[in-house]
Amino acid sequence: MWRDPDKINKWTIADASDLYGVARWGADYFSIDEAGDLVVTPFGRDGAARISLRKIVSEIEERGMAMPAILRIENILGSQIKLLHDTFRSVIKQTGYKGEFRGVFPIKVNQQEQVVEAIAQFGKEYHHGLEAGSKPELIAAISMLPSRDCCLICNGYKDEEFIDLGLYATKMGYQCFFVVEVPGEAELILERAKRMNVRPMLGLRVRLSTKADGQWAESGGEGSVFGLSMGQVVDVLDRLKALDMMDCLRLLHYHIGSQIPNIADIRAGAMEASRIYEELVKEGARMGYLDLGGGLAVDYDGSNTNDQSSRNYSVEEYCYDIVESIMGILDKNGIAHPTIVTESGRMTVAYYSMLLFNVLDVSSFVPSRIPDKLPRIAGDLLGNLMSAYEMVSPKTLQECCNDALYYRNQALQMFKHGNISLRERAMAENIVRHILIKIARTAATMKQVPKDVFKIEEQLYDIYYGNFSLFQSLPDMWAINQIFPVMPIHRLNEAPTHPAIISDITCDCDGKIDNFPESSGNRRTIMLHELKENEEYYLGVFLVGAYQETLGDLHNLFGDTNIVSIHVNEDGSYQFIRDIEGDSVSDVLSYVEYDINDMKQRLKKMAEAAIADGIITVRERKQILDGFAEGLRGYTYFEKE
């Protein structure tokens, strides 16, 4: 709409890829095909399989499931696990590191059963383990462990029952590590282990002085909530020595953030932890494992920087810096290299899941046509605005911008004081919009644009109403301003002409997406296509596999979306391996403690009272109650007839 017309006419798929940053954030899993559809390449750049998301949406709807939907491409989980393990193995071989690598998935990042099951299956050949921080997570983890060679990491607060569950796993031969996080926890673990006649595998979580930048900086540093101080570590060592149980201390653990954008912080943390590890060995602890926690970041905005939504390193650099940092410390005193453990949950699951939804309507900034004849009002306000409109040119851009804002404010003040009518105010605002759009179109053809014009452009956007709930499906976007890639999944061979923000269908002003990643920094708007009559327009939000499915709430009682999982074959064919219907209206009402049967009885009484008062007939009663029953069975989101 206010792009350079010449660029619109010469639009290419490469332009679309650049505009939406597909190559920057897609990690070789996403690209655009010749038809202008966004496609998934679940085996990476070299894989033959390319699956059109637009085609998948059509098949989902043909199966009777409505938008919005969470789409999971389970093969991407396998590709990410393979990438992590293969890279560490390659680096270990090249550097001569004498230890091994063990990946661990923290269940809290995505607790859905099919996700954990898929990770266990894909990770089996790599002995990829699980981390649990609660009793439900621990039971789930134990039931899903594919082999006894996997690490089972027990974090969080632990009561007797939690500890006993882990000890049962230990008895069965699994490598279950109890990570001591708070003072006093070691004593309880040792007591329960003695009662069950089991020698536990212990770990210590330490508070490093190293802190990482970014959204989760409070996870690290000496003031962090979890972890032992150096004095508390010494107390545990003394207790273990007194009990002749130093052979039980096997692991050192730390965590300085789940999204660490700067590789320098990762290196500093690994070096500090290696020094502590060295001292534990010197104290007589058996050791053998160094758990670096999470931190391997996802480049959500595609900028490849140390911004909190990005990372300034590759997976290969991450692995090299960890391995070389550990070797650089331990080799000085001949300390054996430990098995490296990382809890890279975000990196594992972020890419495999995406939110797909249709656009329901648009509130357009585009004004109506200017009438041929304008009334003369209040000092010829409209005439002055029309003069500003006709003056717009590259040389007068700033002046016309100033005039438009001045007369817009003047119209508002005149209306407040009763000097112009509602229709006259609307007419003035309409001309102002024409001026601003003409300014923006002119600016699109210029190399140097006045600063104020850029600010004006931020006001020139349409509102696209998406069929989804931000609070249910993208809670981090609302709560912590998390950036996620957003783009259309089709029509990418057409130039998008409408700057827009995206509103969800909750009745909440916060329920909107108005922060989008761009190569030069984030923008308030995204370019979208004009809606076509009788044709759905679909958008996707990507990299949502970490935390979003677990943290979503019932704001406005919008429940879980429909969920579809597909498995892609090497030849590009695929199967729908699971589809889960989203919450019905009765489901979400029951979640917030409404008794559905009582509700139905109250509705029946209301209908009977209406019959008694002569308001409705008996036949209308049946129609009304059937309508309520159908509504209770329905999807909480907008459904097409």
Describe the structure in your own words.
By secondary structure, this protein is an alpha/beta fold. The chain has four domains: 5-73 and 353-365 and 461-580, Lyase, Ornithine Decarboxylase, Chain A, domain 1; 100-349, Alanine racemase (TIM Barrel, Alpha-Beta Barrel); 381-457, Methane Monooxygenase Hydroxylase, Chain G, domain 1 (Up-down Bundle), CATH 1.20.58; 585-633. It is built from 23 helices and 23 strands. Strands 4, 15, 16, 17, 18, 19, 20, 21, 22 and 23 form a ten-stranded mixed beta sheet that branches. The protein has an eight-stranded parallel β-barrel with strand order 5-6-7-8-9-10-12-14, surrounded by six helices. The protein has a three-stranded antiparallel beta sheet with strand order 1-2-3. Helix 5 (74-95) runs parallel beside helix 12 and helix 14 (381-391) runs antiparallel to helix 15 (397-416).
Give a concise summary.
This protein has 641 residues and is an alpha/beta fold. The chain has 4 domains: 5-73 and 353-365 and 461-580, Lyase, Ornithine Decarboxylase, Chain A, domain 1 (Beta Barrel), CATH 2.40.37.10; 100-349, Alpha-Beta Barrel (TIM Barrel), CATH 3.20.20; 381-457, Methane Monooxygenase Hydroxylase, Chain G, domain 1 (Up-down Bundle); 585-633. The strands form 4 sheets. Strands 4, 15, 16, 17, 18, 19, 20, 21, 22 and 23 form a 10-stranded mixed β-sheet that branches.
